[in-house]
Amino acid sequence: MLVISSPSGAGKTTLARRLAGEFDLRFSVSYTTRQPRKDEVHGKDYHFVSRARFAEMVEGHEFAEWAVVHGNQYGTSIATVNTSLADGVDCLFDIDYQGGRQIRQQWPAQSVLCFILPPSMKELARRLRQRATDANDVIERRLAMAHEELTHYGEYDYLVVNDNLDQAYAKLRAIYVAAGCTRVRNDGLAQALLREAAAADHKP
Ligand code: ADP
Ligand code: 5GP
Question: Which residues of the chain, if any, have pLDDT below 70?
């Protein structure tokens, strides 16, 4: 379970989409009460739902985690998590630090948490403005929140500075590939090899 978080505008969605495009890993499509931006597709970028529907889902324990971010509600479907775990497929989460913390608490051994940093606060502001997907007051609110979000970097396993996009992507890619090679994630195969070797052993 690869969790990617960052202050809004640092580039986590760009990096996460690229990783999901290169590898066979499932992108967890969150539920949100936020209004869709132009070009956002229901079911692909988010499941856009009403506040009433979101409240129903909270009541029905349908979320693995959920949080209020920038005044809107966002949540990860527990079905997505469980299906990925059952299928043995890696899953990518573009969620905030509150969500990352909840995922880490529930799946400490399975989760890898990566925080994307902008090269500077000035560049963060420039990216948010040039993205031109949000109204000015929304951009200002997101910039004000960036400070609070940055204070949570210590809860993450990895920090990747997104200055040059290709270099940042190479680092994120390396983290993902290395995470797949840890001993705990390959213990089953090592144990199977040991059993096979033991079965083939010739008794003196
Ligand atoms: P987030 O998901 O963190 O809010 P986005 O992925 O939407 O951020 O990126 C914010 C804006 O910055 C987008 O317009 C994106 O194309 C741009 N961007 C992302 N990474 C870089 C980079 N390394 N250099 C310049 N612009 C970038
Ligand atoms: P945006 O509105 O820019 O798409 O996302 C705003 C913030 O909400 C980002 O930090 C994003 O990572 C976070 N977010 C998106 N989906 C979820 C989710 O399901 N849970 C949580 N906790 N945060 C989310």
Answer: 202-204
